[in-house]
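Q: I'm writing up a methods section and want to include an example of the input and output format. Could you take the sequence below and give the corresponding predicted structure tokens, formatted cleanly so I can copy it straight into the document?
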Amino acid sequence: MLARRSLLLAAPALATIPIGDRALAQSWPSRPISIVVPFPPGGSNDLLARPLAAKLQQALGGHPVVVENRGGAGGTVGAAQVARSAPDGHTLMWGHVGTLAVNPFIYPNIPYDVLRDFAPVALVATLPGVLAIHPSVPARTTAEFIALAKARPGTLEYGSAGNGSASHITMASFCDAAGIDLIHVPYRGNGPMLTDLLAGRLKVAFAGAPVVLPAVRDRLLVALGMSASRPSASIPGINPVAEALPGYEMVQWHGLVAPAATPPAIIARINEAVNGQLGDPELQQRLVMEGADAAPRTPDAFRQLIASELERFRGLITRAGIRAD
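A: Here is the clean output for your methods example:
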């Protein structure tokens, strides 16, 4: 479970770095900083990374911070390139829960080891999913839906943006925790999935707020709950699924990682700059517009999150038999 300790863990990290290493950090950056988003332009990763990059550039006195999209194989192509980059703090990756904690278990022969090849730098944001149903489904709460699914095992269909996608993983974790059996219907992206959900050809989906909330506001879909364990600024007025399913939480998370041998002093300086910008109201509002909540952490706390999520998804993906397309 992703603990909510943002303010406590966002304290400046440079205080723990030896004086000699701090001098190394002061000479950084010496050329433009590249944030590699290992997905095509226009997706949620890209839309979250770009405003953060702009704010980071401001924090660094106008030093260029550019976003580069290097998509392919669910993020593994770009991730492998970053893992092989010079560990000097000038190449970072926009790390996503899928790239760092899910892909190692759904792609065969993945070309990187997450804990060995990357140094966590800064957690940036978390994105809860929304459990949404077609209005024809006779349930109006999460508890009612779970009861319905248990009474009709293997008959209700849920959609996702594809095998191994965030919407697939989130619903699989919900079914696993609730002890229910739903039929998975994978699509190629959120668009066609949403079309069939609105038409009633699908009955339920666990999708990001920007995907389903407009239809919820227009009363075309019904939101039963959301996947964070506590109320979220990005999804106001929707209760946590955990109220009906104690202990349940499954949020997407996004952050920055660097090649493994990047000096700790440079990592600490980037972390401090990012965490400082996450308190900016303008950036927080941009994140909320994308269904995300700011989530500053220290590098060590981010590393602990990645390690715990790797163990969590190892078990879930094995039990659910999830494989990438």
